[in-house]
Amino acid sequence: MTTEYVNEKEMSKTDDNIELGDQYRENQVRVVESNVEDTNYDAVFGEMNEDGPKYRNVGWIGTVALMMKSMIGLGVLSIPSVLDTLGMIPGIICLLVIAAMTSWSNYVVGTFKLNHRDCYGIDDAGRILFGKIGREFFAVAYVLYQTFCAGSGMLSISISFNALSEHGACTAVFVAVAAIIAFSVSSIRTLGKISFLAWIGLVSILVAIFTLTVSVGVQDRPAAAPITAEPFESDFKLFNKPTFVNAISAISSLVFSYAGTPSFFPIIAEMKDPRRYTRSLIVCQTGVTITYLTIGIVVYYFCGSFVSSPALGSAGPLLKKVCYGIALPGLIMSTTLLTHLPAKYLFLRFLRGSKHLTSNSAVHWGTWIGCVAGCALFSYIISSAIPIFGGLVSLIGALLGTLMSMQPMACMWFYDSWAKGKANPTNKFRLLVGWNISIIVVGTFLMIAGTYGSIVGIADSFKAGDHTGVWSCADNSGTVKST
User: Fold this and answer.
1) Which residue ranges does UniProt annotate as crossing the membrane (predicted)?
2) What span, in angstroms and rounded, lies between the C-alpha atoms of 86 and 240?
């Protein structure tokens, strides 16, 4: 028999708890005595009855799908270009270091959730660590980060539509269609029901990128390589000498590829048994890292400096269509998750502590649909209205993606472990102190340097005139329409 008590330190923060309603305060002091997780009651969602949505209904295998889908998207398709910038060996080393740091951050998310069951999102962690200011800061950062990434996902869907149709319609129309699809699928209320779709999306994106990997190995030359009489020989480099701006931008791309950490908070919150989170995490991080290494090394080895970005265009026009067609469900699911999660956060922020949160009332449905529609609309507007959207997403990713994937998790570890470890310091504790300090230092450096690199990139794109207009109809897939 296990007994779970809420941290007394949390109950001292009465000012923050009052605004969440009396029911939420009661949820904090509830004592659960059982050998299994009580999925009918939760410190975040409260009492869950049969008439309302079953929020905590995601198994550990479904959690793997949601985790991997939150990370594996078009980000993986930039990794061959990263290796081209840094060189094969430095690129692999940087990827493994980023993988180790983010794996630790993701692990701390799970332990922190088990210690603070009322924590739903990174804003709740910010409240616990830094009070009201921390909560509001991370709330704004989280919603901005997810909705900007959702806008990027809508653009990736429009790229797929353009590639498949050979620019059969105005790109602005394709982006609008992508926004409608994202809104429709994201309106499913629970991650438990979305997890099945996440599997479909995950399989589709993996099949697409492995199809690309095989095709570049058997083709005569990459699509971007000049056609000559001589056989093509890859010019891949084991080491390269990039400028500081190019190098830090490439490393920021690696961080962005692993920056699913903020999404892991709401994912674990809807698990049937959060104690199995670490099992899901190990499978996720191992699978993601193997996939990234395989795609990056193989595609860059065969294509060299002629690798396309996104890499799906490296295998020629026909296979480009095949790859984008296979990847389309995965791109849709990435955009779905990136729309659903900030909408769910806003929904909980509005109704937490209210009876409408777990009922099927008109207030419940109106609030939920309004949150999903608002997030989808905002993502659509920024994806269509900002001519330098790609550079702006890079800026948001470098500034907010790093900020929400490294430094706060190290602070969370210190919050839960410092007092106990300091009282009885061991070598393991000292090593973990040094490791978490290094994560804070490296994460801060990458955030500042990556932001600088993104700003320089935006300035350069303005100088070169390398951006489209507002609500542009221009083809964004690089497809040349056949005549």
Assistant:
1) 58-79, 85-107, 137-159, 165-185, 197-218, 244-269, 281-302, 322-341, 362-382, 388-415, 435-459
2) 5
Q: What is the reported pLDDT for 166?
A: 87
Question: Quick one: the chain helix, strand, coil %, rounded to 5?
Answer: 75, 0, 25
Burial classification of residue 331, based on how many CB atoms lie within 10 Å of its CB (0-12 exposed, 13-18 middle, 19 or more buried): buried
Neighbours of 322 (CB within 10 A): 19
- With 0-12 CB in 10 A as exposed, 13-18 as middle and 19+ as buried, what is 360? exposed
Q: Report which DSSP code applies to 226.
A: P
DSSP H or E segment with residue 177: helix 171-186
Residue in the structure block whose two tokens are 């910038």: 85
Report pLDDT for 103.
Answer: 97
- How far is it, in rounded angstroms, from Cα 277 to Cα 252? 27
Predicted confidence at residue 5, as pLDDT, reads 39
pLDDT for the residue numbered 7 = 45
DSSP for residue 400: I
CA angle 281, 283, 285 (to 5 degrees): 65
Q: Report yes or no: 336 and 195 within 8 Å, Cβ to Cβ.
A: no
Copy the structure tokens of residue 185: 């699928």
Neighbours of 12 (CB within 10 A): 10
Structure confidence at residue 389 (pLDDT): 63
What's the confidence (pLDDT) of residue 239? 96
Q: What confidence score (pLDDT) does residue 16 get?
A: 46
Rounded CA gap, 178 and 171, in Å?
10
| Phi then psi dihedrals of residue 34, to 5 deg | -165, 165
pLDDT of residue 24: 42
Q: Which residues of 266-275 are buried (b: 16+ CB within 10 A; e: fewer)?
A: bbbbbbbebe
CB atoms within 10 A of CB 258: 24
Cα separation, 206 vs 356, in Å, equals 39
Cβ neighbours, 10 Å, residue 165: 15
Alpha-carbon separation of residue 187 from 79, 156, 371 (angstroms): 32, 20, 9
What domains does the chain contain, in order, with CATH numbers?
54-464 (1.20.1740.10)
Contact (CB, 8 A) for 296 and 95: yes
pTM comes to 0.87
Ranges in the chain, pLDDT < 50: 1-35, 480-483
> Cα–chain-centroid distance for residue 391?
18
Residue 216 is predicted with a pLDDT of 85
d(CA 93, CA 181): 38
**How many Å apart are CA 400 and CA 5, to the nearest integer?**
33
Distance of alpha carbon 6 from alpha carbon 398, whole angstroms: 35
